[in-house]
Amino acid sequence: MAAKPGGSSLNSMISLGRLGLDIDFISEFGNDPIGYLIDSFLRENNVKTDYVTRFSNGKSALAIAFLDENNNASYTFYKDFPPERLSNIPDKTAADDIVIFCSIYAITKAVRTNLMKFVRTAMENRSLILYDPNFRTAHLHELEELKPLIMENLMMADIVRASDEDMRNIFQVNDSETAYHAVREYCKVLVYTTNTKGVTVHTPSGTFRYPVKKIDPVSSIGAGDNFNAGMAYSLIRDNISKMMLTSLSEDQWRKIIETAVDFATEVCLSWDNYISWEFAERVVRGI
User: Is the full-model pTM beyond 0.85?
Assistant: First the structure.
C-alpha cells in the first residue's frame, strides 16, 4: 500500500517539473492537511501552484486505486467540494505554451465554465492544446450526458491522445482507423495508444505505427499521464510548434512517440505515478 499525490494532470506536471521545465498547475484542493501535503510536493518538484484554487469549506479529493492481477487499476473516489470551484485561473497564455487538460475533470460541469474560459484564452493566444479524454468504463452510464462536452474538448485540441479503451467507450470503435474517422472532423491529430500493442499516430500527412517495450509492470497507474508528459517534453525539446503538428514526418513522430513510451515505461516499473529524478536527469543529459 502507498499514498501519493496524484491525478492525471498532476502526474504529468510532476514529471515535467522534474525535467526542469517552467510548469504551472491549474487545479484545486483544500486548506487541509492533504492539501498542504500536495502543495508542498508540487513545489518540491518545481511545479508552481500560483493558479491552484484553495478552499476551506470542503476537503481535498481522494482516489483509491486497486490493482488487479495484471497490475491494472480500478478506482474509488471520495470528494467534498465547495459550491464555487476553479476560480483562480490565468488570464493569458503565450503562443506555443503547451496546455494539457484531461480525464473526467475536463468534463466536470462544476468547473466547466472557468475551465472553458481558460482553454479558449489559450486558443486565442495560439497555445498548443493536448487533450486526453481518459474516459473510463466507470462513467459509461453518464456518456449520453457527457459526450457533448467531450466533443467540445476535441474541437479545442491540437492533439488528442486517446487509448483504445477511451475510443471504445466514447465512440464504440475498436481500431485506430475508425477512431480517427470519428475524431478527425474535430481534431486533425490523433495519437492512439493500445497498451502493449503499440501506438498509432494519425495526421493529415500520414498514418504512422510504433511499437512499445515489453516489460513486467509493477503498476500501470500514471502510464498514460506520463506518455502525455513525454509528448509535451518532446515538442519542447524538438522546437515543434502548433503550426507544424499536421505536417510532421514519420521520423519526427518517431522521436516524439519513443520518448513518450520511455516515460510511460519508466512509470510502469515503479509504484510512483511520475518519472524518477534519476530518469529525469538521464533524459535532460540525453543519456
Answer: yes
